[in-house]
Amino acid sequence: MREVMSVVNVDDKYVYLSLMVNEAGCSACALAGSCSVKGEKGTLRVRKDDMKEEFKTVMPGDTVIVDLKHNEAILSLIVYGIPLAGFLIGVLIGYILKLYDLISFVLGIGFAGAGALFTKLYDKKYKIEVIDVKRATAQFWRSDNTNEPLNS
User: Is there a contact between 128 and 67 (Cβ–Cβ < 8 Å)?
Assistant: First the structure.
């Protein structure tokens, strides 16, 4: 899924991106005010090391096109479903082996932890990739009131 985003901040290691939202479109939507598209939570953090060399010089205000190589429903199933399945499998193994309830519970927690570890390792293949950058242009004016830009 490709999204148009704006560069909010840049530091030594990360580029912070925010989703560009059309305010007119959001005001006409039936879900206006209840979705998370316009919130501060929509800020993504991309490592500069993972970006192509020509895109590492982005500045705040630049517009970028980002490829989010994931489907949110599938990722939710992976993140929540695998540890839950691990917990249930661990508890069922304890029940089948006729272990104490506490041991079955601990076994379930162990399997859930293994599922969470698997999820963390599997999740590394979903990276945010910057595809294109549109640079924000800025003009600097002379201080001697000649109304001529410096960068012309």
Answer: yes
Q: Environment class of residue 116 by beta-carbon count within 10 Å: exposed (0-12), middle (13-18) or buried (19+)?
A: middle
DSSP state of 89: H
Phi/psi region, residue 108 (left: phi>0; alpha: psi -120 to 50; beta: rest), is: alpha
Phi, psi of 89 (to 5 degrees): -65, -45
Which residues have C-beta within 8 Å of that of residue 109, sequence separation ≥ 6? Answer: 87, 90
Instruction: Give 14-65 pLDDT, tens digit per residue.
Output: 888 877 766 666 666 655 555 555 555 567 778 887 777 777 778 888 888 8
For the whole model, what pTM was predicted? 0.55
How many other CB atoms are found less than 10 A from the CB of residue 131?
11
- Are 123 and 78 a contacting pair, CB within 8 Å? yes
Report CA Rg, the chain: 24
**Residue whose token pair is 């209840």:** 34
